[in-house]
């Protein structure tokens, strides 16, 4: 057990580096964690306050001019648990400090610009935690699998993405990109649950079954995207996600690590505290 | 004890109606609730899940075309606890279903439009809970007290606001307007705390003490605004807020009531569940 309660640190062992092979990642595994579900859930709850505190510091520091922000990019197949991460991990911090956006199929003004334009419009400001449920990566994932753009254009996008993220990182943004990795069978079981429960029907889309036919092609598209866009300034992490409790714990720890790297400080007041105490007393 | 755990229902007893007198509201009081702080906090926690469930239903129903949204407008003097409501009441629901916006002094493009323009830009979509930390009411509050607009213009704004809110209500928005009412002395104590604690310094602004000189004028401006803009379609509630736990419980109950009025239903699937189960099984 280290200071974060895991035998090994998620930001080290889950990171996509040289020679990464998606097919070698077991979606059932829980890297760095030997405990059971109850232990994982307990640990998640224990670190909630820590995450919440760091978020408040991040926000406070920005009021005094600190130029730091955190962006979590969530990708994964249907039912991979993106929404659960938002609800159970991001959901514990003050809503005032979170900018969440779910990217759907582009429409209206969005299609009148390059593919990064709509992403730029939703970036978190300084002091904020941004959370993207899907992202500009759809433009190299579903676009590749379903041939929505010419191959040459998709090929160009990896560099465009890297350039874009490099600029953001240079401007003070910590970028944490997460692929929630479930197995095809787990995806099936989760869709089955959506069909079995009337309060889940609204989450089911018949198109989800069609998309399952392309599972292998999606995995290939992910492999290429992960290889080509996992950078020092915007690394990818592949989080085994068949066990929801593990995925939540891992993403929480990735965020904690990123915030610890920022190490936001309570700002030094720009006013004289003693003078203000006297003024307040007389008011 | 009624079904909501309070002797009387906040949406009835806190509502601003005919002959309302702000000066007669005791900021220390806890209308409809005889219990102690511990009881109030326990009750708040008990109803968290209820609020969270109703929010999910609201969101789900909108995916099937239901045209309902909820807007909470929070007003109050500095330190009244607006941020605490966002954190502790709104904060329990899924961040994906919340649109929060804190309105500051208008700047940039905002001042190139009428005072309602920027408000319109941040309205919650169908299925969402919107939360305004300050709002268009600043244009009849600080504008009146600090003479930022001609009196004739301010006078015209009450009707403009009512017309605007009438339109929103007609479009399916439930509007819950809350004034968090603290006493001048409580405001002083809370500013004192911000000066005493280094981790609170960032929340302190020397201008807050200047604003205290105008406390009585602010109360007059509130009285006028409450009288003239508490309508059947967008009522005001004055919530005694010297006790933070009470204010949070009361606002939570107001939101629960509004959501119960909407009564959102899980949508009926537009697909044939049995057909989809067969398709999924074969995928």
From TrEMBL, chains A, B:
Residues 46-263 form the Polyphosphate kinase-2-related domain. Pfam families: PPK2. SUPFAM superfamilies: P-loop containing nucleoside triphosphate hydrolases (SSF52540). Transmembrane segments: none annotated. It comes from the Bacteria. Keywords: Kinase, Transferase. The keyword Ion transport does not apply. GO terms for molecular function: kinase activity. This is Polyphosphate kinase 2 family protein.
């Amino acid at each position: 057990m280290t200071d974060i309660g895991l035998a090994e640190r998620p930001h080290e062992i889950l990171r996509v580096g040289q020679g990464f092979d998606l097919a070698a990642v077991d979606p059932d595994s829980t890297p760095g964690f030997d405990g059971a579900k109850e232990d994982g859930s307990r640990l998640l709850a224990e670190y909630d306050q820590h995450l919440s505190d760091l978020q408040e510091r991040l926000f406070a520091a920005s009021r005094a001019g600190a130029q730091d922000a955190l962006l979590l990019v969530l990708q994964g197949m249907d039912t991979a648990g993106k929404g659960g991460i938002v609800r159970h991990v991001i959901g514990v911090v003050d809503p005032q400090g979170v900018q969440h956006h779910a990217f759907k199929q582009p429409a209206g003004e969005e299609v009148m610009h390059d593919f990064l334009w709509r992403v730029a419009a939703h970036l978190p400001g300084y002091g904020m935690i941004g959370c993207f449920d899907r992202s500009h990566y759809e433009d190299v994932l579903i676009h590749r699998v379903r041939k929505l753009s010419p191959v040459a254009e998709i090929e160009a996008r990896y560099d465009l993405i890297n350039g874009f993220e490099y600029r953001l990182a240079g401007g003070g943004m910590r970028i944490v990109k997460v692929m929630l990795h479930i197995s095809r069978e787990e995806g099936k079981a989760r869709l089955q649950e959506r069909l079995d429960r009337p309060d889940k029907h609204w989450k089911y889309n018949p198109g989800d079954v069609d998309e399952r036919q392309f599972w292998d092609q999606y995995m290939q598209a992910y492999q290429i995207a992960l290889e080509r866009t996992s950078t020092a300034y915007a690394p990818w992490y592949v989080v085994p996600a068949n066990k929801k409790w593990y995925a939540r714990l891992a993403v929480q720890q990735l965020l904690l690590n990123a915030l610890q790297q920022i190490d936001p400080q309570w700002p030094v007041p720009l006013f004289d505290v003693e003078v203000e105490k006297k003024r307040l007393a007389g008011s």
